Amino acid sequence: MLMSMGIRMYSYHSERVPRNSAVLVVSNHRSVMDALVLMSAIERPIRFACHHYMGQVPVMREVVKQLGCFPLESDQHRQASFFHQAIGLLKSQEAVGIFPEGTSPMVQPPQPPEMGKFHRGFAHLALKAPIEELAILPVAIAPEKETINSAIPLRVLSFFDPTEPLFDQDGWHPLVLYQTVNVMIGHPIWMTPTHRADYQGRFARKAVVELVDRAQTEIKSLLDQGCP
């Protein structure tokens, strides 16, 4: 599909991808193409958690379903929905994709190689999931050449997800399309008994912060390598 769209994608360090275990693929995010790009680069099916509104908007809803994505519930039930669906997939040794920057970079794309602050849900999931062999795989999507167009008015999207404050403004949702993109695969971070032992009581927050910082630092380093 990417080739038919005239997109040139280059993948680096594919030997780092765990092939026979549960994996949390964690990546920066700026384009609707990111799920396709990551599945192509990593060469295994990935089930992506995506924003609630993507499961509500006609056409977009069908696209994310075909890609195997699982839209999250509304704001009130979002975290519980994410944990329940993701743990079920990981127990089957599937790969689950997460974009921990959330919605913001899709609405206000940063300049490459910048990225937004990571939400911590993926770290809680990795530390809490009752799975013996589980790795977080940090991946950087580093565009060399792209175009940015206008897709849909933001206020239209607020009808589908009124809980998202980013949609409560004038302007258009941007559509970032890659022409040339590098995918830089990082070293997997394996969850160990030590990690899970640290995720207890008053030390739990420290364990989560350290894991998030480790993944975010590696992805930023990979972005710096992959962006021109």
Provide an overview of this structure:
By secondary structure, the chain is of the alpha/beta class. It has one domain (8-226): Glycerol-3-phosphate (1)-acyltransferase (3-Layer(aba) Sandwich). It is 34% helix and 25% strand. The protein contains eight helices and eight strands, in the order E-E-H-E-H-E-H-E-H-H-E-H-E-E-H-H. The protein has helices at residues 34-42, 60-66, 78-91, 104-107, 121-128, 154-160, 193-198, 204-226; strands at 8-12, 22-27, 46-50, 70-71, 95-98, 134-153, 172-185, 189-190. Strands 1, 2, 3, 4, 5, 6, 7 and 8 form an eight-stranded mixed sheet that branches. Helix 2 links the parallel strand 3 (46-50) and strand 4 (70-71). Helix 5 crosses helix 8. The protein is globular, with a radius of gyration of 17 Å. The model has no long low-confidence stretch (mean pLDDT 87).
Descriptive labels:
alpha/beta; Phospholipid/glycerol acyltransferase; Glycerol-3-phosphate (1)-acyltransferase; globular; 8 helices; Plipid/glycerol_acylTrfase; 228 residues
SSE string, helices as H and strands as E: EEHEHEHEHHEHEEHH
Based on Cα principal axes, name the global outline.
Answer: globular
CATH architectural grouping: 3-Layer(aba) Sandwich
Query: Which range best describes the helical content: under 10%, 10-25%, 25-40%, 40-55%, 55-70% or over 70%?
Result: 25-40%
Protein name: Phospholipid/glycerol acyltransferase
Domain Phospholipid/glycerol acyltransferase: 23-144
Keywords: Acyltransferase, Transferase
Pfam family, one: Acyltransferase
